[in-house]
Write a structure and sequence with these properties.
The protein has a single domain (1-164), classed as Leucine-rich repeat, LRR (right-handed beta-alpha superhelix) (Alpha-Beta Horseshoe). The chain is 7% helix and 15% strand. It has helices at 3-6, 146-152; strands at 13-16, 37-41, 63-65, 87-89, 111-113, 135-137, 160-162.
Length: 164
């Protein structure tokens, strides 16, 4: 089964595509027929990039795992339709920075794991709209100054910050 077959599969609930050797999601712009999808796992593949509109229409998605891939960047606006997302895992990739508005529409996000990426910096304001965020994992993330992140970033009150 190729990605072109998944593109038009009507699936509800969970879709696990972990550890199946995916190297690209090119060839389609969005994962169609998955409007009722709640959990999507694309982890532990060999994805280096994601198409900018790959998650368009996944408005009911609550959990997205794109960890343990080889992502070098995330396109601005890639998460714009994921307004019901509660958990986002992008740890263990090759990201050095993120677009300042990457998380802007993720108003229901409660857990974010961006640990173990070789970040050089994170732009000020990147976490500003994450009012419901309760846990963020940053550990092993390049040369980030964790004290500055806690001091300078507009993180919600009562948040658990994991820097291990």
């Amino acid at each position: 089964m190729g990605m072109q077959d998944i593109e038009y599969m009507p699936i509800r609930g969970d879709l696990g595509l972990s550890r199946i050797g995916l190297t690209s999601l090119e060839g389609f712009s969005t994962i169609n027929g998955l409007a009722n999808l709640k959990h999507l796992d694309l982890s532990s593949n060999h994805l280096m990039t994601l198409p900018p509109k790959v998650f368009t229409g996944l408005t009911n998605l609550e959990e997205l795992d794109i960890s343990n891939d080889s992502l070098t960047n995330l396109p601005e606006g890639i998460f714009n339709d994921l307004t019901n997302l509660r958990r986002l895992n992008i740890k263990y990739n090759d990201l050095t920075t993120l677009p300042v508005t990457l998380f802007a529409r993720l108003i229901n996000l409660i857990e974010l794991d961006i640990s173990f990426n070789p970040f050089i910096n994170l732009p000020n304001g990147i976490f500003d709209n994450l009012r419901n965020l309760r846990q963020i994992s940053l550990g092993g993330s390049g040369s980030l100054n964790y004290r500055a992140i806690v001091r300078d970033f507009n993180l919600p009150q009562n948040i658990v910050i994991n820097i291990k």
